TrEMBL record:
Pfam (any one): VitK2_biosynth
Protein name: Chorismate dehydratase
Pathway in which the depicted protein is active: Quinol/quinone metabolism; menaquinone biosynthesis
UniProt record, GO biological process: menaquinone biosynthetic process
Biological classification of the source: Bacteria, Pseudomonadati, Campylobacterota, Epsilonproteobacteria, Campylobacterales
Similarity comment text for this entry: Belongs to the MqnA/MqnD family. MqnA subfamily.
SUPFAM superfamilies: Periplasmic binding protein-like II
EC numbers for this chain: 4.2.1.151
Reactions this protein catalyses: chorismate = 3-[(1-carboxyvinyl)-oxy]benzoate + H2O
Function, in words: Catalyzes the dehydration of chorismate into 3-[(1-carboxyvinyl)oxy]benzoate, a step in the biosynthesis of menaquinone (MK, vitamin K2).
The species this protein was found in: Helicobacter cappadocius
UniProt keyword annotations, A-Z: Lyase, Menaquinone biosynthesis
Keyword Cell inner membrane: no
Length: 227
């Protein structure tokens, strides 16, 4: 089984969870060697180089139609801190198709920045618009930035998702320290950031996804595809 993972702080609780979850050594070895940014994982998933992963919502559209999705995602209800638009010349972030599309849906102008780079920019006091906050102001719904989708081994991944959603994961100090050294973001700030992220998809989150997909249709924004 081949699982690809977004290599950002927003999945730190999943990192800790999966270390203790009963999987094969080959599964965990593959996961550690296939960590990247969302747009890269979108391609790997669409071309079936990986079986499953937290895939950008825009690239998980076909999976949702085929019901090859779990009830886990990367979600914010309001400000998210790590998906922002900076007041500079118009520019997309090559790392995230969903965030680039969301910027267009929200009619924002500027440079899109996501992930740990965006979080560090915010920590350093950089001027920005938080897209999670702006979406909630307009739609009064959570925004699902990524969704745990699969191509194969559905029963295994749905069970993994179920256990992840149920478990309250505390990040050990030594791992938090590693994250801080890697990103140059203080440990306390990382913990504050993670309070803005949650992972269980319910009715409101599914409605938020439907509204996002409808906006993509209205604005004729193309979704990633193999062709």
């Amino acid at each position: 089984m081949r699982f690809g993972k977004i290599d950002y702080l927003n999945l730190a609780p999943f990192d800790v969870f999966i270390k203790s979850y009963p999987t094969t050594s080959s599964f965990k070895k593959f996961l550690q060697s296939h960590k990247s940014y969302p747009a890269r994982l979108n391609k790997d998933f669409l071309f079936k180089r990986i079986d499953a992963g937290f895939i950008s919502s825009i690239a998980g559209y076909q999976s949702s139609l085929k019901n090859k999705v779990t009830t886990s995602g990367i979600i914010a209800k309001g400000s998210v801190w790590s998906v922002i638009v900076m007041p500079t010349s118009q520019s997309e972030d090559y790392q995230s198709a969903t965030s680039n599309a969301l910027c267009k849906v929200l009619d924002l102008k500027g440079e899109v920045l996501i992930g740990d780079r965006a979080l560090l920019y915010r920590y350093n006091g950089g001027e920005h618009i938080d897209m999670g906050e702006r979406w909630y102001q307009k739609k009064h719904l959570p925004f699902v930035f990524g969704r745990f989708c699969y191509n194969t081994h559905g029963d295994f991944y749905k069970n993994l998702s179920k256990h992840f959603n149920q478990k309250k994961t505390k990040i050990p100090y030594y791992i938090l320290n590693e994250y801080s050294q890697k990103t140059s973001i203080p440990k306390k700030y990382i913990l504050e950031y993670l309070k803005h992220i949650y992972y269980k998809i319910g009715p409101k989150e599914r409605l938020g996804l439907k509204r996002f997909y409808r906006e993509l249709l209205f604005k004729k924004i193309k979704k990633p595809s193999r062709f």
